[in-house]
Design brief:
Layout lengths: L1 E9 L3 H9 L13 E5 L7 E5 L5 E10 L3 E8 L2 E11 L5 E10 L3 H9 L2 H13 L2
Antiparallel strand pairs: 1-7, 2-3, 3-4, 4-5, 5-6, 6-7
Helix pairs in contact: 1-3
Organism: Rugamonas rivuli
InterPro entries: Polyketide_cyclase/dehydratase, START-like_dom_sf
Pfam family, one: Polyketide_cyc2
Length: 135
């Protein structure tokens, strides 16, 4: 299994972060790696979404768990590789909020997929932080 964790701290509230996460059509505002995205139902367990990334690749993902103001997990399966991304919000003792993306990849190309999947996470988290703090 290939794993990775990226996180950032923000003064934004969990509700502000959640508002951005649950507005899937708006992800393009803070994630430059998305050309197009469409949620096929409510932002809830079991709902699928399709996402186009630069280079015309389109992926279908499923929301496995969705817990308002806390976390959501999505799963994408590509060529026998399973990519799980756990998006979490945690209130720290300092009063700040930690946003983290934990990734687990299993499959025949996990070592190749890993860096491609998480390569832009620092930029995505920084942009998400900026948007959440400006709400």
């Amino acid at each position: 299994m290939w794993t990775h964790v990226a996180s950032i701290e923000t003064s934004a509230t969990p509700a502000a972060v959640w508002a951005l996460w649950s507005d899937v059509a708006g992800w393009k505002q803070w994630n430059a790696g998305i050309v197009n995205i469409e949620l096929h139902g409510p932002f809830a367990d079991g709902t699928r979404f399709t996402m186009q990334v630069p280079g015309d690749d389109i992926f279908t993902s499923t929301l496995l768990t969705v817990r308002e103001n806390q976390e959501f997990t999505d799963e994408t399966v590509i060529d026998g590789n399973r990519v799980l991304v756990f998006h979490r919000i945690e209130v720290l003792p300092s009063g700040l909020t930690r946003i983290s993306y934990s990734t687990e990849i299993t499959g025949p190309q996990e070592a190749e997929f890993g860096p491609m999947v998480v390569g832009d996470f620092p930029d995505v988290l920084a942009a998400l932080k900026r948007c959440a703090e400006n709400q």
